[in-house]
Amino acid sequence: MVVTGLGARQNHGRKFRYFKMIEFSLTSLGRRAASMAAVTAAAAIVALSPAKAERINNPVAEFTGVDKITGRIITFDVYIDETVQFGALQVTPRVCYSRPDTEEPKTDSFVEVDEITLDRKIRRIFTGWMFAESPGLNAVEHAVYDVWLKACKQKSDVPAPEAATTN
Q1: Measured on CA atoms in the order 147, 150, 152, 153, is the torsion positive or negative?
Q2: What InterPro entries does UniProt report for this protein, alphabetically (predicted)?
Q3: Mind listing the pLDDT tens digit for each residue in 121-134?
C-alpha cells in the first residue's frame, strides 16, 4: 500500500485526519520489471559474496588428552587411518580438514575412539566429528580420560607409518 494524500473528515462534530490509501499489484509495476530487478539483485549478492576457500585435507590430526587421575596433559599426533593408544583409549582419525591461514579458522576431524575394558574387550565409545575451535562440543569425556582435537597438520615430528610390504 502507498500513502497518497492527507485528508480531513467530520465525524460527529469532530475533525480528524486520515490517510488515503491505494493498493497496487505487480501488474501495475510490470511483472517483467519486477523479475529483472530480482535477477539483478541476486546477481549482485553472488558477485559481492566472498568465494569459499577449499578445505585442506591433512594427513595428521593433533589431539590433546588429559589423564584425570594423574593430571597429566599430553598432546599427540595421529596419522589418518592409524590408531594411537592414550591410556585405555584408542584414537583413530579418519579425515582431518582445515582451511587456509587467510580464512577464518575451521578445523574438524571425523574420529573413532575405542575403550579397552578391564576384561580386554574393545568397546566403541565415540564416533563422530570433533571441532578444534569448539573443544567442548564433541570431545570424548571418559571417566579417566578426556580427548579432543587440537589441530590438523600437513606434517609431524612423529615418523609416518611405513607402507605395508607384500612378500
Answers
A1: negative
A2: DUF2155 (IPR019225)
A3: 999 999 999 999 98
Q: What is the pTM of this model?
A: 0.65
The residues near 85 (Cβ < 8 Å, ≥ 6 apart) are 91, 116
Tell how strand 122-131 and strand 140-141 pair up.
unpaired
Radius of gyration for the alpha carbons in the chain, expressed in angstroms and rounded: 31
Chain centroid to CA 116 = 31
Write out the three cell numbers for 103.
Answer: 580464512
Q: Would you state the cell numbers that stand for residue 33, as one nine-digit string?
A: 520489471
**Cα(22)–Cα(35) distance, integer angstroms:** 23
- Concatenating the DSSP letter of every residue in the chain gives -EEEEEEEEEETTEEEEEEEEE---HHHH-HHHHHHHHHHHHHHHHHHSPPPPPPEE-SEEEEEEEETTT--EEEEEEETT--EEETTEEEEEEEEEE--TTSPP--EEEEEEEEE-TTS-EEEEEEEEEETT-TTTS-EE-SSEEEEEEEEES--SSPPPPPPP--
Q: CA 74 to CA 65: how far, in whole Å?
A: 5
